[in-house]
Amino acid sequence: MELMEMSGIPDIAGFLSGAKRPLLVLVGPTASGKTALSLSIVEELRAQGHTIEIINGDSRQLYRLLDIGTAKIRPEEMRGIPHHLMDVLEPKEEVTAAWYKKEAERVIAALHAKGVVPFLVGGSMLYVSAIIDNLEFVSQADPLLREKLRQQLSAKGPAALYEQLQELDPEGALSVDSRNAVYLLRALEICLTTGMRLQDAKKKRSSPYNLFIMGLDLKHEELQQRIAQRVREMFAVGWVEEVQSLLKKGYTVNDPGMQSHGYREIAALLRDHSVEEVKVDRELQERIAASSRQYAKRQMTWWRHDARIHWISPQATNRS
């Protein structure tokens, strides 16, 4: 397989020939080119007689109507390759890693049953980990506590709650975006109801699948350039208009989907500025790019020391 030989990765086709319950996985930081590479891999495997279908591993792409800002692949770009777990939730619906694990396992089982190889592609660290590490999540449902935390969030703001999380679990707080209210509230709820650190509240178990995990690893400078370019392109093709449309439909920054990276920042400015003014706000674009760079750093910190990952050099993806 030319793509794999170029990057020095063991042959995927050879792996598939001996795997009873295969699961291909592709991870990598935001804007690294996972979508393009995944399509190329599937097409090359198809040419060798394998049937592959893709499963979305990005928590934001689960939401309908959030397309541009999540870099969601368009139907006409899928090259006839089925994509699963995309556009399955409304922006007002909350999603958890436990819910995602159940749904992804259902899709994987259905694909295996018909002789199709599932290919999990995405950058949401915990969601991908839920599958490849077969995580068992500790129940943390406490409606009264959740409401109390919501009131604290409204009164004190996310910074105060994030400080509380840092006191309870300094290491776990590093994996939580302090500005994402949904994730912040859930993390605090876990710590307060279970008395555990976030890492201890989810248990890794052996995977029921034969895993072949790939990761995209770009040089720091190249990734920064890609992130900046992606943000500019998103603004150019209608991201601000997309957010405006969501607001007109009645969605607010308090809805889980609208907590997605970039959406809340754009929505906040649209309260007092026109679409045209927000579209040309270079400071806003830089803030979003900076936040994306921070997220990419957290992603690579999460995956860097996973010995199971076959890292792909950028030279191997130039054709994608």
Summarize the structure.
With 320 residues, this protein is an alpha/beta fold.
Q: Mind explaining what this structure looks like?
A:
The chain has helices at residues 2-7, 12-18, 34-47, 97-113, 125-132, 143-156, 158-168, 170-173, 181-194, 220-236, 239-248, 263-270, 275-279, 282-303, and strands at 22-27, 52-56, 83-84, 117-121, 136-137, 202-203, 210-216, 309-312. By secondary structure, the chain is α/β, with parallel strands linked by helices. It folds into three domains: 2-137 and 205-218 and 303-317, Rossmann fold, CATH 3.40.50; 143-194, Histone, subunit A (Orthogonal Bundle); 221-296, Helix Hairpins (Orthogonal Bundle). The strands form two sheets. The chain has a six-stranded parallel β-sheet with strand order 3-2-4-1-7-8, with helices on both faces. Strands 5-6 form a two-stranded antiparallel ribbon. The radius of gyration is 20 Å and the shape is globular. Residues 4-8 and 316-320 have low confidence and may be disordered.
| Mean of pLDDT | 90
What's the N-to-C terminus distance?
A: 15 Å
Radius of gyration over all CA atoms, rounded: 20 Å
Uncertain ranges: 4-8, 316-320
Find the count of extended strands (DSSP E, 2+ residues): 8
- CATH fold title of the largest domain: Rossmann fold
- Strand neighbour order, sheet with most strands: 3-2-4-1-7-8
SS summary, helix count:
14
Content of β-strand: 5-15%
What string gives the helices and strands in order? Answer: HHEHEEHEHEHHHHEEHHHHHE
Shape: globular
**Structural class by helix and strand composition:** alpha/beta
- Biggest β-sheet strands, sense, barrel: 6 strands, parallel
